[in-house]
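Lecture notes, unit on protein representations.

Consider one protein chain, 238 amino acids long.
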Amino acid sequence: MIYGLTFNGKHSFSEFGLYVEKKTINPPSKKKIVDDVPFMHGNYDFSTVGSRGEQVFDTRTITVKFALICYTMEELYTKYSQILEWLADCSQSQLIFDYDPGYYFLAEVQDAPKFDDLTDNGELEVNFVCYPFRYSTSYMGDDIWDTFNFLTDYTQYTNTFEITNPFTTVVMYNNGRAVTPVINCSSPMTLRVNGEDKEYKLNAGDNKVWGLKLKNGKNELIFAGSGTVKILFRWESL
C-alpha cells in the first residue's frame, strides 16, 4: 500500500507523485533552565517555575524520505518547482500522515531540499520543524468513529451543554496533556474547575482563560449562570 502525507493542504502522492518511503519522528527535548552554586551537589532546576509545574518542551524534527515516480530530467525540473512551492511557500501548517489520520503535527519546512537532492531515481529528503506536540484533528465531543482509538480515547458525545441556575456541573474528559480550552458562553457566567477555590469569570462569546487547564482524564466544571456553553479543545500528546 502506498502511504503519503498531507501538508499545506495538499497530499504528497495525489498532487506530486511522492510517497513516504521512510520517516523519522524525533521526540522533542525538554527545555531546561538550571543553575549551579559553588560547592553544592547537582544544581537547581528552574525549568517548571514559570509554567506552574508543567514541563515544557522544545520543537521536534520529523525527517521524511520521499520516493518519486520516475520522470525524465526535463519533467523533474517542473516537478521540483511545484514541490518547492508546496513545501516552502507557507508558514506553519498541518502535517498529517495517512497511517495516523486522527492527529496532525504543526510543522514548517525551514530549509527546503535542493534540486540536487531530487535524484533521477526518485528520492527526496525533507526536514519538518514541528511544535513539540501532536494534535487531534477533531474536537473532543465530535464523536468521529473513523479515528476513534479504543486504547486512549473517551466517548464524549457532545461539547455543548445547557446551564441552569443556580449552578450546573459538567463532566469533560481529556485523553491528552493538560490543555486550555475555548469556552463559548451564550451569556456571562462564572466557573470553578476540579474543586479549586479559584473562580473564573466568563464573558458572553469565546473565552480562553490563562491558567485554566483541563487535566488528563475526568474534569468537573461547575458553571453558575444560565444559558449554553460549548467547550472546544483538541487533545495533545507527545
